[in-house]
Amino acid sequence: MIKTTNMFLEELKDYANPKARLSRMVKQGECFRVTKGLYETDRNVPGYLLAGSIYGPSYISFEFALSYYGLIPESVYTVTCAAFEKKKKKTFHTPFGVFTYRDVPSAAFPLEIVVEQEGEYFYRIATPEKALCDKLYTMPPVTNTKELAAMLTEDLRMEDAELLKFDAEKISMLSSRYHSTNVKKLAAWIRRAKK
Question: pTM of whole model > 0.70?
Answer without folding.
Answer: yes
